[in-house]
From TrEMBL:
Gene3D superfamilies tied to this protein: P-loop containing nucleotide triphosphate hydrolases
SMART domains to which the protein is assigned, alphabetical: AAA
Pfam families named in the record: ABC_tran, BPD_transp_2
Entry keyword annotation includes 4Fe-4S: no
Entry keyword set: ATP-binding, Cell membrane, Membrane, Nucleotide-binding, Transmembrane, Transmembrane helix, Transport
InterPro entries named in the record: AAA+_ATPase, ABC_AA/LPS_Transport, ABC_transp_permease, ABC_transporter-like_ATP-bd, LivM-like, P-loop_NTPase
Membrane topology according to the record: Multi-pass membrane protein
Name listed for the protein in its UniProt record: Branched-chain amino acid ABC transporter permease
Key word Isomerase present: no
Length: 606
């Protein structure tokens, strides 16, 4: 298989858009379907609910933040449309656009402080917005928004000066929903969506790849406001009456239940979730006073028992019937591009945690085009040193220089953007990414693409994504994982996940590569393959820092070895000198153990 064919992945990419267009054309054509008023209304309601669920899914499923302010954004779209169309200018397109913008603005009022404060504060801040709906309606004169009794007399919609008959409005609702879902799908099935999956992995991975958690979450949250505001606007035109009681917590309850049925991060399954909830909601008019209790109970039970929803179920079934390929091509086959490394210099770097001196005035020089091994027993400060270099922790004192760039006070995102890439002791592989996309994630920050370009699949988007995927495919060939490029990365065996992480770090074209116990858990053949790859990377000019317990690997690979003990440098030199150093032998390898033992801990125990 060629690099290009691995990078391209899916055959017949036009199939999905063509199918979606066909479905939209059929459903939008109400007269040919022969739908009566009941079914037309049901389809309109499904569309409005699907818009709401997609908004909630973006914030909760993709960005991991519960947006409790959904009814407030919906209310903004509905009341703005009611007011504009009745008293200012009646045009459906204008009202849709202004409602989306107003929903974003209102959402950001709560979203900016909520996301800055972190934790559950977004849910709390947005919840306050819902409380503001009745207060706002009390304050604004009844002659403007209708007060507690609601806004009546919303006119029939007009579009570009023409009045819209009922079937034309129905078609607009279907087309707007289909269009939004195409844009929503493009947004999440892209490097932007992959970045959101990286966010799900926890607080450390995203900054190490140069991705800002706050910016990504805020962008997603703002995007999530768009379909909610649009749904509010369409709702006002559809019912031609807006009342505060339809904008309460019941709305968020129904939306959450539909999302649970559809599954977090679902796309088209949202329509199934919405249809089920609508059916249950129609039934519940017979036991109206109990409906919130019933939906609340479903939320709890569904959340516990139905994790992943329909989308998750489909993925599990697919995994069961389509076996995961595990073939391995043998590492070191592909060509390694030039990696222009830079010298790394640590100057009396210190890190203390309370009274613990994790790193005590460490000075070292790691040269470009060399592998510098950092060895020492457990707790000697190796990982902390890597964390200080990569910006995940800040030094208490000292200086860190990469070439002539001072990294000492830079946060992890900036350090990553300066060309520092790393792996972790436990491989950090986000769920739901293919092996190819997990590797390409290493390059997302190198050439950012705007969200608009992403959603519209602009020529720039296509070019950058193709080039990134080709680079990822090239690194997969180097580490011998081309045969599993399309498989789910997180489901791979430990050795494969370590190679995926290594390929991801290399895919960023790093000037400095930090490897934290990259050989741990690998079998003999895998360690040999790893050594082959690392020699190629070194020969390509990268600066490599290798934290490792496997002393045989260190001996065979390292140009220079730095030995840490209790946070300080005990000694440094070439591997042969270190292997014969009396104190190293005595303290870590054991005087009788010799240096051919595989790990430092084993030697210490000897
Ligand atoms: N966040 C922290 N808070 C308090 N102490 C810490 C923290 N991180 C590390 N330490 C302490 O700093 C010392 C060095 O830890 P570090 O993880 O860097 O060692 P290491 O050489 O990488 O060990 P290992 O080989 O087990 O990974 C240890 O005593 C550890 O307990």
């Amino acid at each position: 298989m060629s690099i290009q064919s691995i990078a391209t992945g899916r055959a017949r990419p036009w199939l999905l858009p063509a199918g979606w267009l066909l479905v939209t054309a059929v459903v939008a054509n109400q007269p040919s379907l022969g739908l009566d008023a009941f079914w037309t209304r049901q389809i309109v309601l499904v569309c409005l609910s699907a818009l709401l669920v997609s908004g909630l899914n973006l914030s909760l499923g993709w960005a991991g933040e519960l947006n409790m302010g959904l009814p407030a954004m919906y209310a903004v779209g509905a009341y703005l449309t009611a007011y504009l169309s009745s008293k200012v200018f009646n045009d459906l397109a204008v009202c849709l656009v202004l409602s989306a913008v107003a929903a974003i603005v209102v959402g950001l009022l709560a979203g900016v402080p909520g996301l800055r404060l972190g934790g559950w504060m977004l849910a709390v801040c947005t919840f306050l917005l819902v409380g503001l709906i009745p207060v706002t309606l009390q304050v604004i004169p009844t002659s403007i928004l209708g007060g507690q009794s609601g806004f009546v007399g919303i006119p029939r919609p007009r579009l570009f000066g023409h009045p819209l008959r009922e079937e034309a409005f129905y078609a607009v609702v279907v087309v707007v929903t289909a269009l939004w879902f195409a844009l929503y799908r493009n947004a999440v099935k892209s490097p932007f969506g992959d970045s959101l999956l990286v966010l799900q992995h926890g607080p450390v991975l995203a900054p190490s790849l140069g991705l800002s958690r706050y910016r990504l979450k805020l962008t997603t949250y703002a995007l999530a406001s768009v379909p909610i505001g649009v749904a509010g606007s369409l709702f006002a035109y559809n019912d031609r009456f807006v009342a505060p009681e339809s904008l309460g917590l019941h709305l968020i309850l129904l939306t959450l239940v539909a999302l649970i049925i559809a599954g977090r991060r679902s796309i088209y399954a949202i329509f199934v979730g919405v249809v089920v909830v609508q059916y249950l909601n129609n039934l519940s008019t017979e036991f109206d006073e109990w409906s919130d209790v019933a939906f609340g109970a479903f939320l709890v039970i569904g959340g516990l028992a139905f994790g992943g929803g329909i989308a998750g179920l489909a993925r599990r079934v697919a995994r069961r019937f389509i076996p995961v390929a595990t073939a391995h091509a043998g590492a070191g086959a592909g060509a390694v591009p030039d990696l222009s490394g830079a010298d790394l210099r640590l100057d009396a770097v210190r890190k203390t945690f309370g009274g613990v001196h994790a790193v005590a005035d460490v000075s070292l020089l790691a040269r470009a085009g060399q592998i510098t091994a950092l060895i020492g027993p457990n707790g000697s400060g190796k990982t902390t040193t890597l964390n200080l270099i990569s910006g995940l922790q800040r030094p208490t004192a000292g200086r860190i220089l990469l070439g002539d760039r001072d990294l000492t006070r830079l946060p992890a995102i900036q350090v990553a953007r300066c060309g520092v890439a790393r792996t972790f002791q436990t491989p950090a592989i986000p769920i739901e990414l293919t092996v190819l996309d997990a590797v390409a994630a290493g390059r997302i920050q190198r050439r950012p693409i705007s969200l608009l370009s992403t959603m519209l699949r602009s020529p720039k988007y296509r070019r950058v994504v193709r080039e990134n995927r080709e680079a990822a495919a090239q690194w997969l060939a180097v580490v011998g994982l081309s045969p599993v490029a399309g498989e789910p990365a997180a489901a791979m065996a430990l050795g494969t996940r370590r190679m995926i992480e290594l390929a991801r770090a290399l895919c960023a074209d790093p000037s400095l590569l930090l490897l934290d116990e990259v050989a741990s858990g690998l079998d003999r053949d895998e360690v040999e393959e790893l050594a082959t790859v690392l020699r190629k990377v070194r020969d390509a000019g990268a600066t490599v820092i290798l934290v490792e317990h496997n002393f045989s690997l260190v001996r065979s690979l390292a140009d220079h070895v730095v030995v840490l003990a209790e946070g300080a440098v005990l000694t440094d030199g070439d591997p042969r000198t270190i292997a014969e150093h009396p104190e190293v032998l005595e303290r870590f390898l054991g005087t009788g153990a010799g240096v051919s033992g595989t790990t430092l801990q084993e030697g210490r125990r000897a």
